[in-house]
Amino acid sequence: MASTTPPFVLSLSHTRFTIPKHHTQRLTDCRLSFPSMSSFHRRSDLFPPSRSKFRRRSKGSIPSAYITGPASDPIFADNDPKIDDSSSPGENVQPSNAISWGLLWSLLGQHKLRLAASILTLVSCTTCTLSMPILSGRFFEVLIGVRPEPLWKLLSKVGVLYALEPVFTVIFVVNMTTIWEKVMSNLRAQIFQRVLIQKVEFFDRYKVGELTALLTSDLGSLKDIVSENISRDRGFRALSEVIGTICILFTLSPQLAPLLGLLMLSVSVLVAVYKRSTVPVFKAHGMAQASIADCVTETFSAIRTVRSFGGEKRQMSMFRSQVLAFQTSGIKLGAFKSLNESLTRTAVYISLMALYCLGGSKVKAGELSIGTVASFIGYTFTLTFAVQGLVNTFGDLRGAFAATERINSVLCGVEVDEALAYGLQRDINRKEVNDKNFELFFVNGSDGNNQSLNMHYMSALKSTSNLDTLVWSGDVCLEDVHFSYPLRPDVQILNGLNLTLKCGTVTALVGPSGAGKSTIVQLLARFYEPTRGRITVAGEDVRTFDKSEWARVVSIVNQEPVLFSVSVGENIAYGLPDDYVSKEDIIKAAKAANAHDFIISLPQGYDTLVGERGGLLSGGQRQRVAIARALLKNAPMLILDEATSALDAASERLVQDALNHLMKGRTTLVIAHRLSTVQNAHQIALCSDGKIAELGTHFELLGKKGQYASLVGIQRLAFE
Ligand SMILES: Nc1ncnc2c1ncn2[C@@H]1O[C@H](COP(=O)(O)OP(=O)(O)OP(=O)(O)O)[C@@H](O)[C@H]1O
Question: Per CATH, is 101-412 categorized as 2.40.30.90?
Answer without folding.
Answer: no
